[in-house]
Amino acid sequence: MKGLGTVVAAALVASPIVAHAQSAIELFTPETVAVAGDIRVIGVDGEPSWLDRGFGKTRFDTDAANRNFRIEPQAVEGDVIWTPRFSWSLGGTVVATAQQGQDHAVDLSEAFLTYKPLLGGGTKLAVRGGLFWPPVSLEHAGPEWRVRDTITPSAINSWIGDEVKVAGLEAQVTRPVGSGRLSATLAVFGLNDTAGTLLAFRGWALHDQKAVAFGLQPLPPLNAFFVPYVQATKTRPVIELDNRPGFYGKLDWAPTAWLDVQAFHYDNRGNPEAVTPTLQWGWRTRFDNLGAVLSFGDWRVKAQGMAGKTLMGFPENGRLWVDTSFRSGYVMATRNFAKGSVSVRGEAFGTTSIGSELGRAWSEKGWALTAAGRRDIGKNLSVLIEALHVDSRKDARASVGLSPDQDQTLVQFALRVHL
């Protein structure tokens, strides 16, 4: 993680820190330290989850011997959140996370500094440097990076959460335009060279398992070419392999209070031939994402669409070992109430594999439907219930004795606390 320290140090040097009054400094106070937790009761059927090194699309599954619907409690996640303020314009965010299924009992989720100087003429500048998720998701919010109105994010934002975490320097400029606003964001980053591994081998998934600084994510059973001498059976999302910085850019236009339109481009500029002794590979991954939020009365409609490509390995017969294109999109409608909300989301996803060693059998297509309700109990406690159904086809399932066509239903009841 040497590269992460370098990026954080660069962010400090780049920020013109001005001395402010002592009253602006808040380090360890009730306003800067918080804890959050998530416990659930889940009911699930279907094939083994990707977290159990299967091809399953959700976070939970039945045991291998009994595929019937099962119900059990789960302690899912706990977070300690520190948001110190060093001056009127300089702050920070550090989140330590304990989540079910991660390699270490506690790991680092985010750690970055934020600089927001006061500018004239209505212009706003926000700079952050450190470890964070790029601003792609329309569903996640808050320092613990959690979805609010559902339990499970869409396939697009599930993938951002489990594989697209960067260490970098990001700047955003916002200007009023008529009765609305226009924002432009640009960032350079590193430590995200393996992004694309999960999408190529596992495919899309719907879950709220998040990448952490020092953790690994499991891969499904791989073919004989990749195991055991080419690709590790787990991928590390936060790692630098080729010392080639990536970049992303975003435009966010809100012409009125009821419409927000966003366009995002990402390119990690990874070297697909870079590899470590532990068989972590560089992946050249690029994608474009379009999003929109429409608000009217108590209703809010969100939509996102993503398309991209990821490459890995050496040329063979005119193609790299892995050449996978991917696409996904969803629409979600939410009805807000005084103390909660009800949401419905529909989505479709797919990948196309044409690599010399990862061929058509690893392509997939599928769809999912989600219905969820949230009820706030005071300001520190929320109760959510969600039903998620996923249906997909992937021919590579036949290699482990499964039908290429699988469907899965997951019902969750969650209790969330934030103190």
TrEMBL record:
**Any idea which UniProt keywords this protein has?**
Signal
Q: What is this protein called?
A: Porin
Q: Where is the signal peptide?
A: 1-21
- Protein's organism: Sphingomonas panacisoli
The root-end lineage is:
Bacteria, Pseudomonadati, Pseudomonadota, Alphaproteobacteria, Sphingomonadales
Its domain of life reads Bacteria
